[in-house]
Amino acid sequence: MKRGVRHQNLGGARAVILHRPHPVVQALTRQLHAIGLEVGDCWPDLEPQAISADFIFFDADMGHDAQFPWKPGESPMPMIALIGSEAPGRIEWSLQAGAHAQLLKPIGDSGAYSALLIARTAFDAHRALSAEIADLRRRLDQRQTVVQAVTLLAQRAKDESAAYGQLRQMAMAWRVSIEEAAHRIVASQGGPDDRRDRG
Amino acid sequence: MKRRIDLGLLYSRSGSYALISDACRTGALAAVAEVNAGAFDLELVPVERDPGGNIDLYAPLCEELLAHEGLHHVVGCVTSWSRKEVIPTLEKARGTLWYAVPYEGFEASDHVVYTHACPNQHLLPLLDWAFPAFGRRAYLTGSNYIWGWEMNRLARERIGAAGGKVLGERYLPIGSLEIDRMIEEIRATEPDFILNSLIGPSSYAFLKAYHALGREDARFRPDRCPVMSCNLTECELPALGDAAEGLIAAGPYFRGEGRFGSSHEAAAHAAVMELARLLSGRPGAERLPLSQLLAEAPPGIVDPQTHHTSLPVLISQVSGGRFTVRERLPARPGDPYLTHPAPARPATLRIVS
């Protein structure tokens, strides 16, 4: 899958650095200001406003799950790990916390811009895939309803493939998915609906 | 009593971009002479190193200036490639590079001052000006390194957003003269304009061949399909001769605006003058890291956040062997990451004929 890198709209974006006061914070803040972001830092807890930040940089050395007001891996924005000790345990925790990119400490003259772009691209890709998987799951769950609708329609149609064709036509006419059209047909016939186990 | 302060000059006096190096060097040395003759409490002593156009000599020679000679400030580098080569050395020695050449942006080193233009000060206003004047179908050329790649990527994005089309994009290794294929593709695709980000001899060969094409076919003359660039200044016109006629360039300065021969000269001069202002009356200040040097002085031309400068945008065309300004836009701050909104274009109505 080819995906362009979204490099616009960084101006005025807000980044929060979750790290104890340290030269790392100063060096990173300098880079982010030069790029045009607004920057805040906090430690040990994320400030409540952080939930609306555009990027979170977090300390991978001293960090732990309770610092984040969301489930591990479910941050509503791209997350960038600030890694000092490259110990497998800390890298594993950063990944579980949902790091989309990383920067190695000490932070020097550069690196923040590529971390921002890589994190945003990974975050967007992850989000698009999650939405696609959820949609496919929902459609899988509705297989039984589709079979029931085709069976109902086949009572009046020539055969099953004509009934399936008819279902597709109806879905197109109603501008809904095949699964949704099948659900409407089954519901209007008072037939059983398998959607009770959707979720 | 004047304090003696050594100032590094790191310019390649030979190799494919020597003309630009010489222009920058002229501007820097003119400023050194001015500082030394003037009321500053400083005597700047140039210490020169010449990488001779060899990319692998920049970092070692910069290190020689900073670590062995004990200097803190270097004016130099022409290509972005060489600038990126010396940044780790600057970081290690806490030195500062004053860079006086237009570049492709997306950099704001804590150890570099950028006194020439970046894309919001050259490429973007140039394209915005060219679209209504010539059209939106472009052919892009470039030398095979970051300047050409990034300029053309930005141009492609801007052209696409304006509903235009890139008809071709081709690169040559630095120094290569194999321009025939570009010329053939341009003849075949008939673009509205050409954006040229070749450098040195490749650029000279291309511009001469394209000029010859225009002589035999009116569709490729500057009034129908001009060549535009963001790095052409007066210092390279002698290498082009007649082939320069009609070329369009964007830059912060052209000869005739002031006492300098080119924007390279002006930008290098401005760099050294600003350094002298920052050091003047502050014994030992030359040893401060750039951020501190800027923070503890009254505001000057260098933006303390981006280390870029505010520059006007002039769009000029070569006519009778010299640049004539065709469009003049007010000064705007350098925006290396293109994260700030562009200034509104002045609301002037033009007669469309």
Automatic annotation (TrEMBL), chain A:
Record-linked SUPFAM superfamilies: CheY-like
Ranges for domain ANTAR: 126-186
Residue ranges that the Swiss-Prot or TrEMBL entry lists as coiled coil: none
Matching Gene3D superfamilies: 3.40.50.2300, Winged helix-like DNA-binding domain superfamily/Winged helix DNA-binding domain
Name of protein: AmiR/NasT family two-component response regulator
Record organism: Cereibacter johrii
Pfam families linked to this entry: AmiR_N, ANTAR
SMART domains reported in the protein's UniProt record: ANTAR (SM01012)
Automatic annotation (TrEMBL), chain B:
Domain of life according to the entry: Bacteria
Gene3D superfamilies xrefs: 3.40.50.2300
Pfam families in the record: Peripla_BP_5
Transmembrane segments: none
PANTHER family recorded: ALIPHATIC AMIDASE EXPRESSION-REGULATING PROTEIN (PTHR47628:SF1), PTHR47628
Name under which the protein is recorded: Amino acid/amide ABC transporter substrate-binding protein (HAAT family)
UniProt source species: Cereibacter johrii
